[in-house]
Write a structure and sequence with these properties.
By secondary structure, the protein is α/β, with parallel strands linked by helices. The chain folds into 2 domains: about 10-170, P-loop containing nucleotide triphosphate hydrolases (Rossmann fold, 3-Layer(aba) Sandwich), CATH 3.40.50; about 190-385 and about 405-550, no CATH class. The chain is about 60% helix and about 5% strand. The protein has helices at about 20-30, 70-80, 95-105, 125-135, 150-160, 170, 185-190, 195-235, 240-250, 255-280, 285-290, 295, 305-310, 315-320, 330-340, 345-355, 365-380, 405-435, 440-455, 465-470, 480-490, 490-505, 510-520, 520-550, and strands at about 10-15, 45-50, 55-60, 85-90, 110-120, 140-145, 165. α8 (about 195-235) crosses α11 (about 285-290), α14 packs parallel to α23 (about 510-520) and α23 crosses α24. The longest helix has about 45 residues, at about 195-235.
């Protein structure tokens, strides 16, 4: 083994998306935040880590997809230009196609290169064909299923065998065609019109099924928690000094509102994470987005841009970062739709909690439809540039059994984020709301917003939910004050308009900060103003429809 004190050797991992680079990287470095997924574009930034016990530093670069101008593509090309050693990854079913693509896009000549051919569990060429390919390329070739761990010794051996890439482009034309063609779009999605409708329904089901499952679970848990935990605690602590009593068991108390919101939000976040991660890991997500590509181009997006939008239903911040894989031409439109129409898991949890407290969980479906329709209109109006006509280079992924280790790691990450980040912030919101009861701030805000609230027929007590939703989307949960009495007193139209307005008026502070960092403060400010204008206008339109019909 190489001595640990030797000068480090940096090796960049290059290839198309979903070819196994990140799995390989995680196996050898043990870097937990580099959890691989089967969704294309899971790597949107350069990640590097050393291989323990060696002098090797592996660099995981975003996968190549199209001959375009995506930010992630630029990152990959910049780092490839600086690299002296590289490991190329190609899928066995499309080896010739992907190697030609890498030769066209990357500066391979003069660099020490190793080739790893993945997905051999799907297609493994005969031994004679493998030997022919190795002799043709004159570089070491390893045939692997990257879901099976590669050892450090094997990696060291590979890098010691690495040869300088000197294959003429014309020679690549002699590579054999795969006997098994790369996967094509799944059959149901290839049916004209019907296929797109099925893809859209599948999209909705990814969120509707876990949300309604969470509703029934929370409905069962809430009475038990109230009877055996919350009510006895509230009674025991009711004689505390006024300030402590308000902070713990008041309308916005840590034990009352905090626990009530946890019961409703946590099941949604966990189950939505399970549904989305399984869809990504199985490869289904890419087929769905590809099927919807034609429709999305009508609003300035591509099917590929739908991937960050769907990611936004988990976390908007992660989705904004993942939009780096979009074309520069469509990235702004994608982020605009994420900010307006991607209800993050915390927002979904808060929304379901409010609809559930009002006894109207079925409102979640029209709420989701309204977000989708108005979000599409919003994106089309404010982003008039046509979607780029880019050619798909990377093939569609296989539909496969999800990798359980990766799936469990990603779900664990979502749960950890909720427990260690989201819930503490919401508890701070509870404390802030409790303390603000002793100040005239809410009264001032009520006076300022009263004319608008009157137009929507909303009571002044709803101001708190609108204000705190600016900080975090689960700030809506403060409307569950006093055991949901306020929400329970609202009509169907009022609760729908309130939740829609509070959740669309602005993205949360952290998302706005991320947008400003990724683009500019001016861009984030403009997006905020446009979204607020669309939210107010669409809320007034919905109010007219709802109060006219009902």
């Amino acid at each position: 083994m190489l001595a640990a004190n030797q000068k480090s050797q940096e090796v960049i991992l290059l290839g198309c998306e979903s070819v196994g680079k990140t799995t390989f990287f995680r196996q050898l470095t043990g870097k937990e935040n580099a959890v691989s997924s089967y969704v294309k574009g899971s790597t949107v930034e350069i990640i590097s880590a050393s291989v323990q016990g060696t002098n090797l530093v592996l660099v995981d670069a975003p996968g190549l997809r199209v001959e375009g101008d995506a930010y992630s593509m630029q990152l990959t090309l910049e780092h490839a230009n600086q690299a002296s050693s590289m490991i190329l990854f190609v899928s066995s079913a499309s080896l010739k196609q992907e190697l030609n693509m890498l030769e066209n896009l990357l500066p391979l000549r003069g660099r020490k290169t190793v080739l790893i051919v993945t997905h051999t569990d799907r297609y493994m060429p005969a031994q004679e064909e493998r030997r022919y390919i190795e002799n043709l390329l004159h570089i070491p070739v390893f045939w692997k299923d990257t879901r099976q761990a590669m050892g450090q010794q094997e990696l060291l051996q590979a890098m010691e065998m690495a040869e300088v890439w000197g294959v003429p482009k014309s020679v690549l034309s002699f590579l054999p065609e795969a006997k098994n063609p790369p996967p094509s779009l799944l059959y149901p999605f290839t049916i004209p019109v019907v296929g797109k409708l099925l893809a859209l329904m599948f999209c909705l089901a990814i969120f509707a099924v876990p949300v309604f499952t969470a509703y029934f679970l929370a409905s069962w848990l809430q009475p038990l928690a109230e009877s055996y935990i919350l009510n006895p605690l509230a009674e025991a602590l009711s004689n505390l000094p006024v300030l402590l009593s308000v902070l713990l068991v008041g309308d916005y108390g840590l034990l009352t509102l905090g626990s009530y919101s946890f019961i409703w939000a946590f099941p949604v976040i966990a189950l939505v994470a399970v549904a989305t991660v399984l869809t990504e890991e199985s490869g289904m997500q890419e087929h769905i987005t590809h099927a919807l590509d034609g429709w999305l181009r009508k609003i300035g997006l591509t099917g590929r841009d739908l991937v960050p939008v769907l990611t936004g239903f988990g976390c908007n911040v992660v989705a904004v970062l993942q939009s780096r894989s979009c074309s520069v031409c469509s990235r702004g439109a994608c982020v605009s739709l994420i900010s307006f129409g991607s209800a993050c898991s915390y927002q979904i949890g808060a929304t379901l909690s409010l609809f559930g407290a009002a006894g109207k969980p079925i409102l979640f479906l029209p709420y989701l439809v309204a977000l989708f329709i108005v979000g599409a209109i919003h994106t089309r109006i404010w982003n008039k540039q046509a979607a780029p006509q880019l050619e798909r280079k990377a093939p569609l992924p296989y539909v496969q059994k999800p990798d359980m280790a990766s799936t469990a790691a990603r779900i664990k990450g979502v749960v950890r984020q909720f427990v260690l980040q989201a819930m503490p912030i919401f508890l701070l919101i509870c404390i802030a709301a409790s303390l603000l009861q002793f100040t005239p701030l809410f009264q001032w805000l009520t006076v300022m917003l009263q004319p608008f609230l009157q137009v929507l027929h909303l009571p002044s007590d709803t101001v708190e939910g609108i204000v705190f939703s600016f900080i975090r989307k689960d700030g809506l949960l403060v409307l569950n004050q006093n055991g949901g009495v306020l929400i329970g007193s609202l009509s169907t139209a009022q609760i729908f308009l309130l939740v829609y307005l509070a959740s669309t008026l602005s993205s949360c502070v952290v998302t706005l900060y991320t947008i400003a960092r990724e683009f500019s403060v001016k861009h984030a400010s403009g997006l905020f103003a446009k979204q607020a204008l669309t939210s107010v206008a669409s809320t007034l339109g919905l109010a007219f429809i709802l109060y006219t019909l009902f």
